[in-house]
Design a protein that fits this description.
The structure is a homodimer of 325-residue chains. Helix content of chain A is 37%, strand content 22%. With 325 residues, chain A is of the alpha/beta class. Chains A and B meet through strand 9, strand 12 and helix 9 of A and strand 9, strand 12 and helix 9 of B.
Chain lengths: 325, 325
């Protein structure tokens, strides 16, 4: 197949800080990108204006009639609750002015092409399952580890969204019936392994006088240590940092064991910033997961890092429209 | 449709103590039953002999040629790990002589009709989702509470069995990353809410001198109190018994909240002996589940008792063969 004939779609990764646009082909290749700061828009109409302004920078025509033959569709991943079937945004957690927005309809009216809207983690999961290591599996669970902990479920080769498009909230699964409280419940995984929780654990230990390589990293402000720095210190053999990642691994393994017993996926695929710690995270994670599963389950599930890097979001959004989801 | 023309299937509920057989029609009506003690058979061949002996008692012909036009097939639910696709039994937890048995093949050869083999909880879940209250939902989770805690998942109107037919092991989901240990892991739900755990909680309190209506029930042996008796005492206002069911409800709500965040089913349907406690269990369970979910999830999930009673297993097994699964 000649490269010029590959089907293409516009992926829009709608983040809390930046909106990234990418023209992506059906092999997952990113052909062109553009972006604008989320804060420079005020609600859906001005957001669509900025998207329209980006089209020429992606080599795309701005008029609906000319755009339609050029792309298979538009896929938009957003940071919040959506109804995928209707392309409807219930609410975006950190972006004001986006409650109850029928974004797919608005975009279709503006651009004249089929548009799909999903939450960003489902889009990433779809990208990873279409073009990344998830393409090897029919049943897999995709997890992002960062400020929050998100999830996407691949069941029978399709993203499973539950009864109301909100499934996959792995970050709120409980790992302790008598644990930390949040508005989402008790003992939610994210409260133990989210970026802030990891950093806080280091800060608490430093303030308590614990010796550690992190003391230098932190200079005089224990609050400044990041998960990335803790991973680096762990890689250099720092005992405190290794302990912190071991605790993160125990917490993740607890939730993952529950997921494996419930769904028996072929693989758990992990992306996001904290996953970049590599073996520092994956070694204890695999060990603790095995320790928390009966061998008949442990032998049949893989734990592996996501393959798509920085463009995972963009590629996933485009995948929504490449009619593979 | 005349009653005589209803499609029928043979359901076989293979329990650790008894094997129950039932001729079930496509409306879920049980037409005839028979049974034999599991312990009177020694492995697959003698088990199939006993099944054959039961056929006349169900009004069915014993010869394959005559049997084939009479029933749509045979469905067998077993207490252990199976590969549903192949109709293969990996192992039965409490029945010796049943490791690596291709039971569907053996039964098809013996009886000349299509045979399906699944684990007993999946069969019950299918029965409840076909003929019980689960027929109202496309996405539901079925849970049995008894000696063990089992589960079955309805996803897009089908029982979901995971990558290797072992999904739905809700009893091993962890509710405490630092909790009770078992060969299956750490903090498994069943260790807190299985029959034995519930009875033990009462026994411990009685031995510690706690006053309770249960003291009379127990006579001089605290170990003799059953979950059924604790439910009765709770219904009579006994403080200890109410506390025990509140604790059971907290533990169940923790696991159910995780399930709802992960899968967002429309309903959680609960069967099995402990579920017969009725409001004594369901009232605190619904309250704690709401307390452990964000309202957007809590408002969209129902918690309700199973509708099929004692015949749930039989009906579910037959449903396997009525080609609705």
């Amino acid at each position: 197949m000649s490269d010029r004939k590959l089907k293409r779609a516009l992926g829009i990764d709608f983040g809390g800080t930046m909106v990234k646009l990418g023209l992506v082909d059906e092999r997952g290749g990113v052909r062109a990108t553009a972006s604008f700061p989320t804060g420079e828009t005020r609600g859906p109409e001005s957001w669509l204006d900025r998207v329209a302004q980006c089209l020429p920078r992606l080599g795309l025509p701005a008029s609906p009639a000319a755009l339609k033959p050029e792309i298979a569709g538009i896929g938009i991943g957003v940071p919040g609750f959506t109804d995928f079937e209707r392309g409807f945004i219930y609410e975006l957690t950190n972006v004001p002015g986006w409650a109850a927005v029928p974004l797919a309809d608005l975009a279709e009216r503006r651009f004249g092409v089929r548009t799909f809207v999903d939450n960003d983690v489902n889009a990433m999961a779809l990208g990873e399952c279409t073009f990344g290591c998830g393409r090897l599996y029919h049943h897999a669970v995709f997890v992002t580890l960062g400020t929050g902990v998100g999830g996407g479920l691949l069941i029978h080769n399709k993203i499973y969204r539950g009864a109301h498009s909100m499934a996959g909230e792995i970050g709120h699964m409980s790992i302790d019936f008598d644990g930390l409280r949040s508005p989402q419940g008790v003992g939610g995984l994210e409260l133990y392994v989210g970026n802030r929780a990891i950093a806080q654990r280091a800060a608490d230990a430093l303030r308590a006088g614990r010796s550690s390589l992190l003391r230098e990293t932190a200079a005089n402000d224990p609050e400044r240590v990041t998960p990335r720095e803790i991973a680096a210190a762990a890689a250099a053999g720092d005992a405190l940092s290794l302990e912190i990642f071991d605790f993160v691994a125990v917490c993740l393994a607890t939730a993952f064991a529950s997921i494996v017993y419930l769904l028996q996926p072929q693989a758990i695929i992990i992306g996001g910033g904290v996953a970049q710690a590599g073996d520092i995270l994956f070694d204890p994670l695999r060990r603790h997961l095995r320790d928390r599963l009966s061998p008949v389950f442990a032998d049949r599930v893989e734990v592996r890092p996501a393959e798509l890097g920085n463009d995972a979001g963009l590629i996933g959004c485009a995948a929504l429209a490449l009619s593979i989801g």
